């Protein structure tokens, strides 16, 4: 079996230095910084150029939108995400606009858009933390989401804060590098490779 050996130094620093923090600084993001994140998302590839991604966001803790976004999060995520200056709900349009057929690439394409957003954020010293821990039905209800759209994730974003501001059990893992599968576990040239 052919093994793949990447040159570690070739991994782009924006990718190498990215991680999902929980200790976010309260420091606000400027309107332009936030706009740049969505601009990056906007330029992602998508099946049939459908651009199925949608984002409901808030940078204003006193706003009704922020209150509703925050309410959707499970308590575990609320505990740390409360300091992040940007909260958002991500959604996809589940069917293609042109023929109303199911778009099986919608969530894939949302992921591409969030990937763009994450790298753009990293270039500005901003960190992105994706969250699956939220109540989908509550999000649908609180934002009156039409049946054409499906909430997918929530995101907290901002600059790094003080580790002491997050619950002590989360502090231990804050700076621990997450493990990854080996490159030869995820990519192969074999035609009879046992996927595990
Ligand atoms: C779709 C998705 C859902 C996630 N949900 C949560 C979550 O609800 N709460 C949380 O603290 N982290 C969540 N994470 C963060 C992952 O645990 C994290 O990305 C993973 O452990 C790898 O760590 P890293 O991003 O720091 O490299 C989620 C990540 C993704 C992509």
* Whole-angstrom Rg: 18 Å
Uncertain regions spanning at least 5 consecutive residues: none
User: In percent, how much strand structure appears in the residues?
Assistant: 5-15%
CATH evolutionary superfamily of the domain at 27-163: NADH Oxidase
> Which range best describes the helical content: under 10%, 10-25%, 25-40%, 40-55%, 55-70% or over 70%?
25-40%
CATH architecture of the domain at 27-163: 3-Layer(aba) Sandwich
Small-molecule components bound: flavin mononucleotide
Give the averaged pLDDT, no decimals. 95
Q: Kindly state the number of beta strands.
A: 4
Q: Classify the secondary structure makeup into a structural class.
A: alpha+beta
Query: How far from one another are the termini?
Result: 16 Å
Count of helical segments? 8
Q: What topology, given as strand order, has the largest sheet? A: 1-2-4-3
**Biggest sheet statistics:** 4 strands, antiparallel
- The geometry reads as globular
């Amino acid at each position: 079996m052919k093994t793949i050996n990447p040159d570690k130094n070739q991994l782009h620093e924006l990718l190498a230095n990215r991680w999902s923090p929980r200790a976010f600084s309260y420091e606000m993001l400027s309107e332009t910084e936030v706009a740049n994140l969505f601009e990056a998302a906007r330029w992602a590839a998508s099946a049939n150029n459908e651009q199925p991604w949608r984002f409901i966001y808030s940078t204003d803790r006193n706003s009704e939108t922020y209150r509703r976004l925050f309410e959707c999060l499970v308590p575990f995520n609320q505990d740390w995400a409360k300091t992040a200056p940007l909260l958002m709900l991500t959604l996809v349009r589940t069917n293609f606009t042109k023929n109303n057929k199911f778009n099986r690439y919608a969530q894939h394409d949302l992921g591409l858009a969030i990937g763009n957003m994450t790298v753009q954020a990293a270039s500005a010293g901003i960190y992105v933390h994706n969250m699956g821990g939220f109540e989908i039905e509550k999000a649908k209800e609180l934002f009156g989401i039409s049946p054409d759209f499906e909430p997918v994730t929530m995101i907290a974003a901002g600059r790094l804060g003080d580790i002491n501001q997050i619950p002590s059990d989360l502090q231990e893992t804050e700076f621990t590098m997450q493990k990854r599968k080996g490159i030869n576990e995820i990519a192969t040239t074999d035609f009879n490779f046992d996927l595990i």
